[in-house]
Amino acid sequence: MNKRLNKRQIQAQITYENIYNAAMSLVEKKGFENITVEEICTKAGVSVGSFYNYFKSKQDILNEIFRIADDYFLNTVSNVSTGQDAYENIVNFFAHYAKYCEAIKIDQLKQIYSTSNILFIEEGRHMQSVLKDIIDAGKESGQINTDMQSEEIVRYLFISLRGVIFDWCLHGGSYDLVEFVTNYTRRLIRVI
Asked: What CA–CA distances, in Å, run from 122 to 45, 66, 101, 116, 158?
């Protein structure tokens, strides 16, 4: 059942989106560490008090980027990575990862892929659990036969694929990321 939003709820959603979009625009231009809440508010045309109605801190903007990505993997990718071949499911997972990264403006992505961003290594994220479920299913079916723990495989794969995204950013997005990630992942999973 779809619940209709009232005018106040619609305005709240618009304000939230304006703040988030203003922040992302500034991140793209200046980098996350170089922007302030005041700059975000000025660009969004809202008061600082309004900002804090939607976000606890500037860090919450970064958290929101990762929450949106995790929701995408939980609600979309987990439903399409259920084929019979465990290795192809891993390849498909990372093809979606690459598509998701391509959809983000490259200058924003360059700012997100920073060593100061520890959200990449935060445990328990949906993105990680979706991949772990794929690996667990492959182990249960006997297709993935290794003494490595599923969590260890997830970590190794993400470390490798984040390196690919970082390389793509360094090259200014000059190559087809999905194609490269698909080929790279196929080669990489041979070691599992």
From this structure: 33, 10, 19, 13, 12
